[in-house]
Amino acid sequence: MTAAGEHPGPEVAALREFLSGDPRNVAPLLLGAVLTHQTDEGAVSVRLTEVEAYLGPRDSAHPDPGSHTFRGRTPRNAPMFGPAGHLYVYFTYGMHYCANIVCGPDGVPSALLLRAGEVVGGQAIAASRRPASRSPQDLASGPARLATVLGLTTADSGRDALSPPFGLALPDGPAAAVASGPRVGVAGDGGSRRYPWRFWIQDDPTVSQYKAAKAGTPKP
DNA sequence: ACATTGATCCGCT
DNA sequence: GCGGATCAATGTC
């Protein structure tokens, strides 16, 4: 009997409880964590190096105009209102998927967008999913790239990232050097500057550094 | 710097 | 119901 499938072990329960906190506090320990997805092709594992926090609806204690939940619950963003540790995957720009790990207590919508990572397992499968990749370090150096190498689509939205075919392993301790700054590409004007909730591992080559450079580049 | 591409959501009828 | 703006981006120019 596979009791493990029916009753999550204490480790998973503890991990889910940890993820139920404020994503801005969860972020430093999620950096360095390894997310795995097992499919028929095999398993791909990504070590997370860059995330962005998104918080609750407009009428919550933390209004966040950049969050998909700012205007309330919809069928698409429903997973963000669910238990922590589940995936929220959405489709954007007509061609890309982006994946979040849901945070916060059940009923309070918040999540961490997985912006970049390092492929640490299943490199061959990852590369086959990203033919345009030029180097191992750009395989998952972007939110849609990361979702692509893990084979995530909206069909995975709402699924539990802590149970098979997924898995999440936290690092032994917080990443040595965590940097933070404005979020990338958040719609509306004020959003990104007022909410510096992007977190990344400093000097990690898989972080989408070009975004930081772009943000700091003055207009001609 | 620009084309690509379709689901989603708001605000109307 | 329907129309139109929006979009947590990438790849190629």
UniProtKB/TrEMBL annotation:
Keyword Secreted: no
Enzyme class, broadest EC rank: hydrolase
Highest taxon above the source species: Bacteria
GO molecular function annotation: alkylbase DNA N-glycosylase activity; DNA binding
Family per similarity comment: Belongs to the DNA glycosylase MPG family.
PANTHER family tied to this protein: DNA-3-METHYLADENINE GLYCOSYLASE
Protein name listed in UniProt: Putative 3-methyladenine DNA glycosylase
Origin species: Arthrobacter cavernae
Taxon lineage: Bacteria, Bacillati, Actinomycetota, Actinomycetes, Micrococcales
